[in-house]
Amino acid sequence: MIRFGSLPPLYSVVTLYSVELYSRRAYSVRRRELGDVMASDLAVHVTGLRKRYRDKPALDGFDLDVPAGTVHGLLGPNGAGKTTAVRVLATLLRADGGKAFVAGYDVARQPAVVRERIGLVGQHAAVDEVLGGRDNLVMFGRLFHLGKREAGRRADHLLERFGLADAGGKPVKQYSGGMRRRLDLAASLILRPAVLFLDEPTSGLDPRGRNEVWAAVRALVADGTTVLLTTQYLDEADQLASRISVLDHGRVVAGGTPDELKSRIGGDRIDVIVRADADLVAAAAVVKGIAEGEPEIDPDNRRVSAPVRDRVAALTEVVRVLDTRGIAVEDIALRRPTLDEVFLRLTEVPDERES
């Protein structure tokens, strides 16, 4: 669970600020006023969101639309505004301007009802390590004003759903990293939130633990939960997100499906790894004569990479010319651009672009 300064986890925030529960009828008039937003299939709708910390803008005209029942990735370098955006959408921070609706409700005007419909899982688990997994979930259920019996039923259901039923009686300190994160996810779903915010959910996990969390996230979305994912692992966004927004300097600089973003920096690429360092320049000259752009040279890996238009023809010609010139290669392959390359291209500083 994420903590901001001295704030408790969102579970406790919801408990502290949602003592008075609001019925659907109490908001029926306001929901009619938001007809356009509510009639759409958007779980998150943000326009022109702004937030400044003293003289520095953290959000500077941030726009975001997230369709219900999908995973939307929010990527950006450190300081781009990702955490600030999540804090505003989770009602933990007030924006200076703009509009934001989560699950159809205005986060500024209706924060209490928004909190009833969201969950938040941060970079660090906030479950009690002394208690068992089931006791943790029952505790969160009681904090959410569930009766003792209902809290127990909900805990048992979530343990089964996340593959933790056999470990429910064990202290959490005996859990693996992946198990703790799955328990964290389970705790965020006590009240069946419509929207779940995941902030770096697999940070520090080994590959097995990451796969466990990914499987759990996919299961949530299959059941209709909307997920807004912030992550530094671009392969994670590629694996989970149906759409991605790239955030830089407080605003979205690009958005689309993973394949659409990859296409923005070109189509297929050819990679040639030479056997000897001395052949690197000669191989680059061969690739340059066939490729659609200037080749990139990676001396450490003895690799030459460049974009190509006709993938089969380019591969055939590169192999032929390399063989004719007697340049030995260890590997040659065609591939699509990676999200890492997209991210670096979209968020590079102006001086880097000019160079």
In short:
The chain is an alpha/beta fold.
Question: Can you characterise this structure?
Answer:
The protein has two domains: about 10-260, Rossmann fold, CATH 3.40.50.300; about 270-335, Alpha-Beta Plaits. It has helices spanning about 10-15, 30-35, 35-40, 80-90, 110-115, 135-145, 150-160, 175-190, 205-220, 235-240, 260-265, 280-290, 310-325, 340-345, 350-355, and strands spanning about 40-55, 55-65, 70-75, 95-100, 105, 120, 195-200, 225-230, 245-250, 250-255, 270-275, 295-300, 305, 330-335. α12 (about 280-290) runs antiparallel to α13 (about 310-325). The chain has a six-stranded mixed sheet with strand order 6-7-8-3-9-10, sandwiched between helices. The protein has a four-stranded antiparallel sheet with strand order 2-1-4-5. The chain has about 350 residues and is α/β, with parallel strands linked by helices. The protein contains 15 helices and 14 strands. Residues about 1-40 and about 350-355 have low confidence and may be disordered.
